[in-house]
Amino acid sequence: MVVSLEKNVPHQVVIIGGGFGGLYTAKTLKKANVNVTLIDKRNFHLFQPLLYQVATGTLSPADISSPLRVVFRKSKNTQVLLGEVNDIDPETQEVILGDRTIPYDTLVIATGANHSYFGKDNWKKFAPGLKTVEDAIEMRRRIFSAFEAAEKETNPELRRAWLTFVIVGAGPTGVELAGALSELAYKTLKEDFRNIDTEETQILLLQGGDRILPHMAPQLSEVGKVSLQKLGVVVKTNTRVTNIENDLVTFKQGDKVQEIASKTILWAAGVKGSAMGQVLANRTGVECDRSGRVIVEPDLTIKGYKNIFVIGDLGNFSHQDGKPLPGVAPVAKQEGEYVAKLIQKRLQGQTLPQFRYNDVGSLAMIGKNLAVVDLGFIKLQGFLAWIFWLVVHIYFLIEFDTKLLVVFQWAWNYITRSRRSRLITGREALEEAKTVNNSTNLVTKIANPPTQPTPHSKLQSYTADIKAATY
Ligand SMILES: Cc1cc2nc3c(=O)[nH]c(=O)nc-3n(C[C@H](O)[C@H](O)[C@H](O)COP(=O)(O)OP(=O)(O)OC[C@H]3O[C@@H](n4cnc5c(N)ncnc54)[C@H](O)[C@@H]3O)c2cc1C
User: What is the average pLDDT across 447-459?
Assistant: First the structure.
């Protein structure tokens, strides 16, 4: 039986999603004369830009997460509900949450985006993406397990595959992952293994377009590329991945088709709108773009429904320069703040001019003392950019929860290059361990040290190492 929650007065705002968009909507409404219900399927807000640091063992999941109840402890007009919304009824103005319906006067949908494998969903199990805490823990398991497996592997070809990491997609996530992997393999883990030289590790960054960090100025893309190359990362642009299967990536550069054996393939390419986009399309007839993002009006509402807003990664706002705004945190944050202000204006019988995004620039961390920052009017690189990156991230992290611990963690890592969050966890990890324990054969083989490794600095061009084939 469907039970309705008692309808609250005065104005009832329901927000689905406590990511950047939903969080800033609710925060901006905290002193407004409205009742806010914030629904999220997780009980925490996740600071996604630092997920790669969890995946590569620098930070722990809790370092980049803030419990929503803590964030809104002092917002007396806000109630937080844990649950996944799978449907809404725009006619009766209700959100359906399990066996309950929650009435709204205004609905804000901020459920974000998921990975897109461009229709090749079977690649997902071979090349996990990075979007949730679970994704980061799975990536961390694969990365650290790969070094462990290489340590035990006596077959040089297999060992090479274990020590080959392929990252698909060279936006900020791909670049930051590549930089962090380089630091990990060539610095942090250097002294920790006995049978392998982690400098043997190959890190490939594959990018379909003609430059990495395509949202940044071309000169910063070039700086990023050269910096990564200096760190030992092989950067391949104009490279389209045509197949991913267990331990093998096939890619095409021009007419040349190549294959590389890798036990760790990481996905940092496309995104698509979350499932709520399709629910909304079915329920209201609103149009979605090819990436499943909901086309929104200039005031971030959807066509025909002045009381339904879609913000953040799920929305396609193209009213500024004809192109959709990028799926980045500042867009979601500013949209959330705008919607909160518009709701309050409307309650006073007024309105606001259309939403305008104030581009605050973009940044990407490449490695120790190395980052690129594009603020439009000013472009920074190297150490200065790195300091800027740190300040911005610390500011964002402490804005809604005290994360001074992260600052100490970073300082400690900076000095020691250590990564303390290297836990290999999960059911698969236990299964892998069992397999190893049962394999006396393997234990015997480990007694024979591997052949002399080649440090990454002395590796010949990786093209010599990959099996080239022309189809
Ligand atoms: C790895 C990674 C790195 C990034 N790096 C940067 C960066 O450096 N700089 C930058 O500006 N941006 C970065 N981004 C993008 C940025 O994180 C997003 O643009 C931003 O989080 C979008 O905010 P949002 O509120 O739209 O969605 P999200 O932050 O994704 O939040 C969506 C929320 O909705 C909840 N939810 C989803 N479906 C439901 C449902 N049906 N019912 C209930 N709850 C639901 C989710 O649990 C989640 O809490 C990065 C993203 C990723 C994944």
Answer: 41
> Ligand 1 in contact with 277 (CB < 6 A)?
no
Q: Looking at 7-16, 378-387, 398-407, which range is the least confident one?
A: 398-407
Q: Decide if 151 is catalytic.
A: no
With a 6 Å cutoff on the Cβ, whether 224 touches ligand 1 is no
> Ligand 1 within 6 A of 130 CB?
yes
**Which residue's CA is the nearest one to ligand 1's atom 39?**
111
Residue among 16, 20, 52, 396 to mutate when testing ligand 1 (max atoms within 8 A of CB): 20
The model's pLDDT over 274-311, given as tens digits with 9 standing for 90+, comes to: 999 999 999 999 999 999 999 999 999 999 999 999 99
Confidence of residue 3 (pLDDT cuts 50, 70, 90): very low
Question: Looking at domain 121-269+368-470, which of 3.60.21.10, 3.50.50.60, 3.40.640.10, 3.40.710.10 is its CATH number?
Answer: 3.50.50.60
pLDDT in tens, 112-144: 999 999 999 999 999 999 999 999 999 999 999
Sign of the four-CA dihedral 335, 337, 342, 343 = positive
336 close to ligand 1 (CB < 6 Angstrom): no
Annotated catalytic residue: which of 138, 151, 176, 335? 176
Class (C level, CATH) for 11-41+83-115+271-347: alpha beta
Q: What are the helix (H) ranges across 156-254? A: 156-162, 172-183, 218-230
Backbone angles phi, psi at 366, to 5 degrees: -105, -40
Sorted by where each begins, the domain ranges of the chain are 11-41+83-115+271-347, 121-269+368-470
Give residue 370's pLDDT: 93
Among protein residues, the one with the nearest Cα to ligand 1's atom 17 is 48
Instruction: Please state the pTM of the whole predicted model.
Output: 0.89
Q: Which two tokens stand for residue 242?
A: 């045509």
pLDDT at 435: 66
User: Cα(17) to centroid of ligand 1, in Å?
Assistant: 9
Residue 70, judged by CB atoms within 10 A of its CB (0-12, 13-18, 19+), counts as middle
For ligand 1, the distance from its centroid to the CA atom of residue 113, given in whole angstroms, is 7
> Which atom of ligand 1 is nearest the CA belonging to 18?
49
Cα 445 to middle of ligand 1, angstroms: 46
Give which of 157, 155, 156, 164 is closest to 441, Cα–Cα: 155
DSSP H helix total and E strand total for the chain: 13, 27
